[in-house]
Structures are given as C-alpha cells and as structure tokens.
Design a protein that fits this description.
120 residues, Cytochrome Bc1 Complex, Chain D, domain 2, binds heme C
Amino acid sequence: MSRVIFAAAIIAGVALAGAASAGDAARGQEVFKACAACHGERPGDLGPSLVGVVGRKAGSLEDFRYSGPMSRAGWTWDEAKLAAFIHDPQGVVKGTKMPFDGLAGDRDVEDVIAYLASRK
Ligand code: HEC
C-alpha cells in the first residue's frame, strides 16, 4: 500500500514541476498590472473580461462590443494563440481596437498566460 502512495507522490511531483515550467502564475499576476487598466473586471472597462479566456472563443462575450476583426477571428484562445497575440496584438488581429503594443519578454508572456489560466 505504501508503494502506491509513494508512486502517486512521484506522479504528483512531476505534474507540479511541469505546471511550474509552463509559467509562473504569481509572477504573472504582477505582469498583469499592465493589462488591468483595461481588463480590470469593472463595468465600463475599456477591455473585455479575461476571466476564463483560456479555452474561450475569441471575441465571443455577449456584453462586449469587439472590433470587427476580433469578432471574426474565429479561433479559440489557447496558450499558443494568446502568446502570439500578447506579443503582437496588431500583428495577430490586424485592426484590433486593443490599444496596446504587446509585451516583448517571453517570460512575461508565459507568466501572464499562466495567471490567466488560473482565473476560471
Ligand atoms: C489600453 C487598454 C488595454 C490594455 C492595456 C490591454 N488590453 Fe487586451 N483588450 C483591450 C480591448 C479594447 C480589447 C478588445 C479588442 C477588439 O475587440 O479588437 C482587448 C482584447 C483582449 C483579448 C481578447 C479577449 C476576447 O474576449 O477575445 C485578450 C486575450 C487580451 N485583450 C489580453 C490582454 C493582455 C494579456 C494584456 C496585458 C498584457 C492586455 N490585453 C492589455 C484593451 C486593452
């Protein structure tokens, strides 16, 4: 029986290590301060809610008026699409009304996505 527990502990450890290498959500929360002015979950904010954005269809919130290009984007936000968009919003969604030049650092982008993924 103790062997089973030991094996389970190793598997849990590997899973945790894997999650940590994909991005640091706590650090990402700090990076998110650059986004919170527009994505602060307040009524009337300039940007749409990002709670649950990982796995959500782009431009799909009923209560937000997206630009034409964002509402026609057609994809579902996964980590790769988010990384590309956060690096270069205008390059990925040409004509987006998100007035933000993007984050340059790979680590900042990875960490902010880990933070977004933690907000369901
Ligand atoms: C100055 C305001 C502003 C800032 C700063 C900003 N955004 Fe946005 N964001 C917007 C607006 C406005 C939209 C809607 C874009 C459209 O409709 O074309 C948007 C859209 C998005 C979307 C698409 C959401 C959806 O529902 O499809 C994501 C993802 C996103 N922003 C992430 C971020 C992240 C991450 C940051 C910080 C690194 C950030 N934004 C910073 C204003 C902003």
